[in-house]
Structures are given as C-alpha cells and as structure tokens.
Design a protein that fits this description.
4 copies of one chain form a homotetramer.
Chain A (H helix, E strand, L loop, with lengths): L7 E6 L3 H12 L4 E7 L3 H9 L5 E3 L2 H6 L5 E4 L6 H10 L4 E4 L6 H14 L4 E4 L6 H12 L5 E9 L9 H20 L3 E7 L15 E7 L4 E7 L7 E8 L2 E5 L5 E5 L2 E5 L4 H21 L8 H20 L3 E2 L11
Parallel strand pairs in A: 1-2, 1-4, 2-3, 4-5, 5-6, 7-10
Antiparallel strand pairs in A: 7-11, 8-9, 8-15, 9-10, 11-12, 13-14
Helix pairs in contact in A: 4-5, 5-9, 7-9
C-alpha cells in the first residue's frame, strides 16, 4: 500500500453497450478513478450518459475530450474501425489508454499503431484482452510458471456461446471469438503462433444458414506446442470457456465453473453461465482496476500493442485457413525492442 | 446507476490485522470512499497506518475521530470488548457504522446496543457477517428463495481451519467460528435458532492439549429445521466452508471450491484455500462496497443489531451445551418493530 | 488362482423380488455356482422360478431342500420373520448360508442364532450387508486402514430414496434403511455403536401422512467417534448413498456418482440413480461371488451373526430414541470368542 | 432369463499376460464357461497354466486344441501376427471366436479374414474392442442414441499412459493405442473415418529418445464429424481415457473417474488409475461374459471382422500421416452384406 495521487479522470470513448458498462464500472466499482468525459458520435447518447455522472462532460470529438484538463487517461470502447484515429490522438496528448479489443481491425493498421508507439518511445496502450485478469486463467498461468508440471505440450480450449448475434459470418468466429484464445495461447505459453489450421464439421442445425459453426481451430507455436480450439457460437445451452494445459508431467484444467451443486429431479449438477458478462464480470473489474492502479503509478502494464498486432496477424492467417481449407503460416514483423 | 454524492470519509477504529486490511480495502478496492481517520489505543501504530494514506489523521480516541468534519461513517474493527463504547459514541454522532463481528461479546451487552439503536429510532449499524456477501452463499440464498426445491428441512455445514491461534479454548469454537453458521442459518432459512446441542468426539491429536476439537453442533429452528455444523479448527489440511441445504424436492451444496483441476503424480484434484482471507476476500470487498454504497444513498442494509444480538444469544446457549453436555434452549427477547 | 472344486449347488429360500434376482444372479453372473433348489411357501411361484433353471427343483419346505444331495449351500431371501427357522435348519445340516438382512427381526432372536452358531462351534452364516462389497465403500475402508489420514473422528452419511413403499412407518426408516449405516459405521470404523439420538425436522410434504421423514440420526461409538445419518426416504429426486469420513488429517467422501457429465439446456451435471438396484448392482454381484468363492474354499467370510445381532440391538435403541425423543444407550452382550 | 445349455468349453490361445488373465477371468468371474484347453508355443508355460485349472489340457498346436471334443469356442490372445492362422483354423472347425485386438497386424491380412468369414457365410468372430463394454462408454452411446442432444459434431478424446513399454516406436502410438479411439469413434458415432492427420508437439522429456510422444491425431468422418485424440503414452502421472461428445444441443463427457474424493495436505481430489487393468477390469469381465452368453445362445454379437478391418485401414493411414506430416485419406473396400 502506497500513498495515492489524486483521482484519475477518465475519458470513455464510445458509449455503446461496452462503453456504458465501463462508465458504470469506473464510477461504481473502481477505486481511484472517475469518468470526467464521455465521447460518442451520437451526441444525444453521449449527453444522456454524461448526465448520470457528476462532473462528466459529453463530447462528440475524441480530440476535444483528450484536450480537456480533467482528462488524464482514455478508455477506447468505440467500434474497431475508429480505434486507430483515437489511439493516434491519444499519442499526441501522450495519454495512457485502455483500448478494447481488437486493437485495430487488421494487421496492417495494427502495425501502424505499433510504429507510432515505437516513435513515441514508451508504451502508452494496454489492450483489452481481459481473460488475463480472470482468476482461473491467472491461477493456470501461475501454475505453468512454477514449472512443476514441466513444459506445456498441448493446450485444449473450448469456447461456446449460446447464440451468435444477427449478421455474424463464419469469419467472425475467428476474428471475434477465437482472438481470445490467440491471446491466451501466447500469454499462457509465452510462445508466438506460427501456423493455423481450421477444420469444420457439418454445421450444427443451430447455426444460421451459411455459417460454418462449430469450427475446430489448431495452432502450432514457435515453442513446439499444439493448441486446439473448439469454437461453437450457437451451442444453445450456455456460455463456456475452458482450457486444459497438458504438460510433460501433468495437466491443469480451468473453466468447469462448479460453484453450486444441486440434486433435484433425477439430476445432479449446476447452472451454466449464459453470457460473457456473467462469466467474466470479475475479470473486467480487475482489468480496469489494474489499469487505473498502474496509470496512477505512472506505469503501463498488461497486454501491449505488440500483443494486439500479433493477434491481428494470426486472425488473418486463420481466416485464410478457414476459407482455403489449408494450413496457413503466420507472418510477423520483427519484434521491436520496446516490446521485448 | 444514479449520480453519486461526494466521496465518503471513513474512520477505521482499530488498526490490527483486520482494521489495517479494511484501510487497504477502502483505499485500493472500494469505489466512493476514502479513509480520513484511523484510531488505535496504540498511538504509534495509528500514526504509522495514517502516514500511508493521503489526508488521513491518526487518533487514539474514537470520540475525537467521530467528531471530525471529514468523518462521515465509522468502521469498527477494534477488539470485541471495545465495540459497545464505540457504537454508543457513533449513535451520539448519528453516524453509520460497519461493525466487525461480534457485535459485542455477550447477549446482555448486545441487548444494550439494541435498546440504544431502538431509542435512536432508526438503524445505523451493519454487523460484519460477511458470508452474506459471498457469491456462493448468495446463490444458495437465491435458490432457496425461489422455492423450487420446496421448504428447507436440514442444513449440513462443514467449517474447517488449518490451525487455531495460540490461546484458543473449546468455547471459542462456538463463539468465534460457529457464529458464522449461526448467522448463515438464520439468514438462509429465515428461522430463529431455538436450541443447541454440542457433541464432541475424542479430540484430534492435532488439537492443542485440553481443546475439544472437532465439535459437532446441532441447531433446531423455529421453522422446524435441523442444522448440523462440523467445526474442526485444527484440521491441518486447509480452510473449508461448505453448506448443503436439504429441501423437500432437492438439495443444493456450496463450498467445494473446484476452480482449477490438475492431474499429476497419480492424483487429480485441486488446491484447498489455506485461510479465510483467500476464501472470502471477495466477500469482504463486496461487503464494504455494499456498506459504502448504501451509506452514500442514506440507507442502512445488511445484518442488523438484532442479528448480532440473536447470534450472541445462540452462542451463550452453545457454550452451555458444550460445557454441560446437554441440549440447551435459546432465549430471545421479543423482536422490536425496528427489526421486523 | 487355485484349482476349483465342483460347482456349488445352492438352494434359494424365498422367491420374491430379492430371491428371484439372486436366482438370476447365480445362474447368469456368478462363476462356480448354480441354483439346484428354490423354496417358497407359494408352491406355484417356486415351480415357476424352478422351471426356468436347468436341473432346479421346487420345494415349499426349506428343510426338504436342505436335505437334498445337490444342495451344498443356502441363500436365505425369505421375509425376516422366517429367517430364524431357516437358519436353525441350516445349522442342523451344517450348511453354509448367505442370509439377507436383517439377520432376524429383533435383538432377542438374533441372540438365539448367535447362541446356536456358537454351539455349532464354527461360523456358518454370512449376513447380507452388501455395502461392504461396494467398490467405493471398499476404497474408503482401504484408505482408512492405511491410517494416512489419521484416526476417524466423524462420519457424515446421506441416505436418500425416491419414495417409500406403501405401508412404511417412521420406525422403518431406522429398521430398514439406517441399518445399512449401522453396519457401515461398525465396519468402516471398527467401533461398536454405544448410543443413538434421532432428531426430526418438520416432515417433508413428500412424506405420507404421519411419517416422520426425513430423520437425522446420530451415533456415538466406543472409539469416540460421532456419526450422523440423514435418512430421507421420500426425497423424490433419486437414490443417493454418500459417506464422508472426517479424520485427523483429512477427509474422504464417496457416493457422488459422477460418471458421465453432460452440458445442455443451461445446466451441467449428470443423472442420479433411481434405486438401490442401479446403485448397488455390482455390490450384490460381488457379494454373492465372494460367498460362493469362500464356500468353495471351505471358508466363511463377510459380515457375521455378531454383526447381524449388533445392528439389531442398535435398531432397538434407535426406534426408542425416535419414539421418546431422547438419547438411548445401546446394550450388547459380551462378544463371544467365535466372533473376536 | 432363459434356460442355459451346458457349460461352454473354451480354448485360450496364448498364455502371456493377457491370455493368462482371460483364463483366470473365465474360471473365476465368468458364469457358464470354463477353460478346457490352453495353447502356447511355449509348452512349459502352457502346461503350467493348464495345471492350475481342473480338466484343462495343454497344447502347443492351436489346431489340435480346436479339434478336441471339449472345446466349443476359442479365445485368441496370442501375438497379433499369429491371429490370421488361428482364425482360419477356427473357421475350419466353425468355432466361435473372441479375438483380442488387433484382428490382424495390417489391412491386407484383415481383408483376407473378412473374405474367409464371408465365404463361411455367417459371423463367427467377435473382435476384442473392449471399450464398447465399459459402463461409461455404454452410457455415452445410449445418450447419443436417444438423440436428445442432437447430432454429434465433434468428439474430443484423451488417452494417457504412465509409460510406454521398452521397444515402443512412434508408430505404435497409432497402431496400439489410438486404435481404441478409432473403434470408439466408429461405434459411438456410427460413422466411418475418412481421413487422418497427425500433429506432434516437441516431444515430452518423458518420451524415450526418438519417440514422438505425445501426438495429436485428428479424424474426419463420413458423417461430417471432426474427432481429435490426444495420445500421450509417457505422461508419468496415470492412466486416463476420456471422451467428450459435442452435439448440436449439448455435450457429454466420460472418464473423469471421480469415485472417492479426499481432502488432505492442502489438496482435494482423488487417485488416478495407473493402468488399463484397473480402469477397464469391469469392461473385460463384461466383454467375456457377453461373448459367452451370446455363444451359448448360438449368436455372434459385438465388434465384427469389418470393425477390425476398418480400424486396420485407419491405422495405416494414421502411420502415413505421422510419417509424412500430411492429411491422409482412408480407403476401404465396399462393406459386404454380411456386415451391414
């Protein structure tokens, strides 16, 4: 426990479902921060959200918000295509940023952000891969780091959603869902992903017409591990995220979620979470608190722009692997010293 | 989400292990509050804790702290015998209080607090029965309230600690440990406890000389339920709190704590928490946040002085049941309208 | 593996549900035995069962069956009140017997059998406490015998049935159901039960009028252990038998029955067995095979007449404890040398 | 229950570890059969085994044993290369056979057996894929057959051994271990396997020099399912066989093996079986009993020569996939009417 500086004033860019939830989180759950600005191209929505928060100003222009004296840090929760501009503006003001995933929509734009931050000369951005803040993933990571089970050889992942939103495409299973496993793989194993293969069974009758759901995605890594991901976004029965690391001398599995066990009507068992909010609420809270705490200490921690870029590159390989039905190698630029 | 009033200034009375942890919690985890005063009869310790917090004053006299302009609420974490005086002083200043358990050391003093708050005419005290804020207990409570399993008939509880602190007595298993199950029984079932029986097996070799550990404690309730508690404070292997409600049409069990499952060295399974901090950290966080939120809304929620008094009365019956080896009935005064 | 003598000819006395199932078991599942005689006061039923088995004769008189040259051993599955006569006849022919529980309906008659076998000078009877042959109970017993968890201090038991048969009384919960836990307690712990207390919550709405169901039964043992049994014979949702031994340095639990885990419709979990046949089929098979094997080796193993008598004595104490609402001590005769 | 014919006389061919265990099984566990002949090229070993069984003759020549009057059925437990000759001899005597896996060492020889049985005009052979007789696999099969979870889309398998025997090669992981998952896949899903891919992470330090262990094997099926198998034969910590079927509306998992749960020394959990004998003892018992029962009824049930042939063909594709690092398609002859 060290003495703290003054309360952190945060500008939240984007007031959709995710942004509004972050406003609530910072105001009601997070220690040491408050929302001093909200930004949305929809001026009415920005005003409505700002009106609920004492001392919060509504903006339509991110640059204007970032220039305000009571804004010390920026949380980017706008749609992916708007991230690049917002990040570059933040760099101009040298403001710390928590940027929701994806960093940007593709590897080329991610690379531009990487270059811009490199020129700035110090890290400013934490990317919102919030699974790294989930208590179970953190336990798994800690266990792997002790080395007591030996080297990780395989990582089996399950990722299931009740139903996909309208308008989902087969590619979005890779770009919006499996991105989490891409980050988790890199973070848990400390490896880069070098190749992707995507296999698709006959689609489930639950899948909307034309959507290849579920998919079975396989990563190879530069540390010699094999990683598989079952992604099934229309499973109908619940939201489940499970991971099992198979190491030389043992395995470790998370995500069973067995809090309360009931016995009734001829069955034992429990309830399955129905969405990511329920499953990962604590992880979001911990992520934002960690970002606020680090920012107030003058530090940048958490997933970096390099992580955001690497995942974008794996996504592009994954989508090609899905479309062409072949194994696709991942190509990455050399890792800059800033991210070593 | 509603607009919030200014940050709550909290005086923390008592800066021992529990008090110091609450100071850390309010400063680093809790939204909307900060510690403006710490009080300890040990002036040096108070100063040391205050020095780590921006804008926090050290006191040795609780009354002086409560009179300060930047103190809006009080968290009592001093030893049990000091609670009565602190609570009465808080009533004089009409300050909201979060009082760590026990409310006071016995039923007679608890009754005096009850009377004082009743005269005040409104509730000011939330008693620190923090299990009510544990996510699993909350799920169990919600399930029971739906009525889908029918009426609860029995409640089986397990409560195990690695080792008792030096100086523990057989009575402290009832007064310091089983108090939690007394509160949980009353809260989960909505019943008052009417009789207590305590059975003791041959003590474990782990138990310090002369301590009857484990004990098997049985409650009868005015709702016709039978409740059993295994309390074993020197089990050596971990800290475990489990509860199984047996209802007419099913059962529900919490506390298995099966987050990460490993397979290694011929065994599957996981780690058992080693203390209550690990097991109930989230519950403490949630409890203090709930108290801060309610206080800022001008409300008093959570366990009441009546709950503190009722548990004190059950404790007295429990200790007699242990000492005399017989079933002892619990006697309660009539419940005042304030606590209906 | 040793060379085996000729196939054992078994007379099955009683061809009700249990007897008929044993006939099937010996013919189809058991190695080294066949049914050469069936006995029933209902001549038609005996003939019908015999007709399905090659070389099997139907009798109405147990003595006639036991005198037949092709009868080498007797399995008694007639109603409890008929056991005493059957056992005494078997003693006259010095035939080995597997006698279904209860040995006899009360302690006095059990004592007469004890005396008769003692006069015979060697054990002839194995009592049908088949839980001793259940794989999970056997594992628990083995673990306790290693001593690695230390001395057992408590044993928590759950015993639930879907529904009681027509005509059940409150006493039958003790005499027909809890008898299993009486035997299991004595066998697992190696203690005799010295006192019984029975507590009854407000009966479940599932219980037939006038039946006190569930009950909470507490044993004290001469080894200083406390044992509790939840017996709930109209729980509606399944058949469950669970036991948790709490030892000085750890606990061990059996009976969760988690073979196949499904995830569907918002729930994870599995199926609960609906009756004892499903739960204990393997135990019955193993029990009869063990009896056949021992008999062919000229030995008598398994639960003895002393075990049958001791359980009958505990039952009588239990029924008094239920009726009078008090703790009742168990009185046993001195244990004869034959059963040491 | 139907009346049974006389006891089945069985010739056991091969008296190694597996054969000797089957002799013990038939003599001590199986109802309705006895071993009347044992055959081994090692005459001493055959005599030694025969000497322990009443009425059992030792042979060195399978044909001589099969010609004996007291031999009604044959259990082939000799090494794989000897199977073809033994099976053809059994066909000459038109004897029912239980043939341990593999049916024969390769697809070409399996095809010759297929052709020979087809000429015989009726099925005589049950292949020893004993997982079909495991209680948990049987439950999973039953559940899938109800269709209540919808169509199976994926099947995730784990297959782990403590250590490989001396002399194991990378190919044997496919040919000796994954064969079980090949059969299970075909049986559970009712699909044929159409392609195999094998991925290998950097070998575990546990793996003997030059052995690629673990491997990750992927099947595609003619029913549009994707099946993955983790095979890890030097995991060091236990023997584990798990399967998870992912269907359209839910999943089902077997193999967790959670019979007894202990809490001790800071950990909860249980013991992992150390070999297949422990894990599948009941399956072997059930398999042999099912074969004896069917044979006495004059029927042939269980895995057929077609199943043995199909698995051999998948093995050949799997070994090529491993060696060449590519996806290999499986080629099967047309399925004869006898096996429809």
């Amino acid at each position: 426990m060290t003495q703290r500086a003054e309360t952190l004033g945060v500008a939240v860019i984007g007031t959709g479902k995710m942004g509004a939830d972050h406003v609530r989180r910072i105001q009601e759950v997070t220690s040491g921060a408050r929302v001093t600005a909200v930004v949305d191209v929809d001026a009415e929505r920005a005003k409505m959200v700002a009106a609920r928060v004492d001392g919060c100003t509504a903006y339509t222009d991110p640059a204007a918000a970032m220039a305000a004296a009571d804004v010390h840090a920026v949380l980017v929760a706008s749609p992916g295509p708007a991230h690049e501009a917002a990040l570059l503006t933040a760099f101009e003001h040298d403001l710390p940023v928590l940027c929701e995933k994806p960093l940007t929509p593709d590897a080329a734009s991610a690379l531009r952000i990487l270059e811009a931050e490199r020129k700035l000369g110090h890290r400013r951005v934490q990317v919102g891969f919030m699974r790294r803040y989930d208590a179970e993933y953190m336990k798994l990571k800690s266990l792997l780091e002790t080395g007591q089970l030996g080297r990780p050889l395989m990582l089996h992942n399950r990722h299931r959603n009740v139903a996909s939103a309208p308008g989902w495409t087969s590619e979005m299973l890779i770009n919006d869902s499996v991105t989490h496993e891409m980050d988790v793989t890199r973070w848990l194993l400390g490896h880069e992903i070098t190749a992707v293969t995507v296999l698709t069974p006959t689609p489930s009758d639950n899948a909307p017409d034309g959507i290849r759901d579920p998919q079975f995605v396989i990563f190879e890594t530069d540390g010699g591990a094999i990683v598989d991901v079952e992604i099934y976004v229309n499973c109908g029965f619940g939201y489940q995220v499970q991971a099992e690391a198979v190491c030389e001398r043992g395995t470790a599995r998370i995500g069973d979620g067995h809090a309360m066990v009931t016995h009734a009507a001829g069955r034992w068992g429990g309830i399955i979470a129905q969405d990511f909010v329920e499953r990962f609420a604590d992880a979001y809270d911990r992520e934002v608190q960690a970002w606020v705490d680090a920012t107030r200490r003058g530090e940048v921690t958490g997933p970096s722009v390099w992580d955001g870029y690497a995942v974008a590159a794996v996504c592009e390989a994954g989508v090609r692997a899905l479309e062409e039905g072949v194994r696709v190698e991942v190509e990455l630029v050399e890792r800059p010293a800033l991210y070593q």
